[in-house]
Amino acid sequence: MKTSLLQKYNVPGPRYTSYPTVPYWDEALFTTDSWKASVQQSFRASNRSEGISLYIHLPFCESLCTFCGCNKRITKNHAVESPYIAAVLHEWGLYCTLLDDRPQIKEIHLGGGTPTFFSVKELEKLITGLFQTADRAANFDFSFEGHPNNTTKAHLQKLYDLGFRRVSFGVQDYSPSVQEAIHRVQPFHNVAKVTFWAREIGYTSVGHDLIFGLPFQTLDDVIDTIEKTKSLAPDRLAFYSYAHVPWIKGNGQRGFKDQDVPKDEVKRTLYEEGKALLFQNDYHEIGMDHFALKTDSLYNAFENKKLHRNFMGYSHSKTQLMIGLGVSSISDSWYGFAQNVKTIEEYYQALNQNNFPVFRGHQLTAEDLIIRKHIINLMCQFETSWTDKNMYFDEIPEVLSQLSEMEQDGLVEFVKQGVRVTEKGKPYIRNCCMAFDLRLKRHAPETELFSMTI
After folding, report:
1. Cα–Cα distance between 44 and 58 in angstroms, integer?
2. Which end of the chain has fewer CB atoms surrounding its CB within 10 Å, N or C?
């Protein structure tokens, strides 16, 4: 029987929010001092020209969503808010002592967890506290993730007043049976309400996050969700594949059985039919898993080849230095990565001793930097090349050999000193990146590390 493209290429693989991917960080060669030095190097090179980015992880949620792979702490005790905000500002102060100039903050993204778990007062304390020692860069871009069930109009108004113009709401799916399975029950009118509020206040980009491949999800569910989404016309959409990795996330993804999760051709149909509906409604594919209207800044960045990708996802602008604040946050100096400790108790303990709460990281080699550029190019523009001799590396012939089957299947095209992903090949972009991933090829995982690529 003829093997389908899905059967051939649906293998475990990284999502490439970084290169090297976290399981391949060389932690033995990493030190906090080397990380600090790389932050200083990057800051001096880029602060005045492009500013820096901040990702702030706000981990608290009132209930557990069983599809979620994020670092979170489940609690209904809102007394945790104030000490956590104080700790994040303390960490920011430690970074500021490293810097020999006043930071120009270009991007802020509040992620979680549930950022809108926090009160308006505490969020205001956070943002105003950051800018006691920093300035807003020209053309700054601030965004946050809002839970439709607990984002209030006061949240939206205060964050708007503080400079935020983008908000994304986690929708996932509108089917009651799916929502019950993933423990994320939120009626359509809750999403509609916060979307209308954001527009009324003046947000220039409202995003919705949808997921395909959730437990019990059917094609009718996906169609219904996209039809409802169409009626609200968000400016941009994420249409993610559910990453079923219970061996990593433990009981959080065991609220349902493995057989309840759509797989293989069934799951791919959910994506293809959903994507076709998005195209019919004037959404354009931007990188991997993302779609935007022509009026959104993400579309313009993609068209102008200025799209960037980092641990915060896709961005219409680039900063070389991204500092992650809060428990489990990952920072990126371009020359290195560093991740904070994963529990709130460890985070507080490190800061109480005036130590950076970093527990692991990676210093990029010259080879890493070249491969990283190729993977970013593929993820952001669906093509890369080595016409610039600085982008060439010795294993290029091996990469082309590995991609030859994808080329025969019409998924990639070989162009002069380069590779281009075809329209047919876009769903297989992660497979293409894997051909460039030298660390993955040299040390194939012996245990389950990654979700399936498709």
Report:
1. 28
2. N
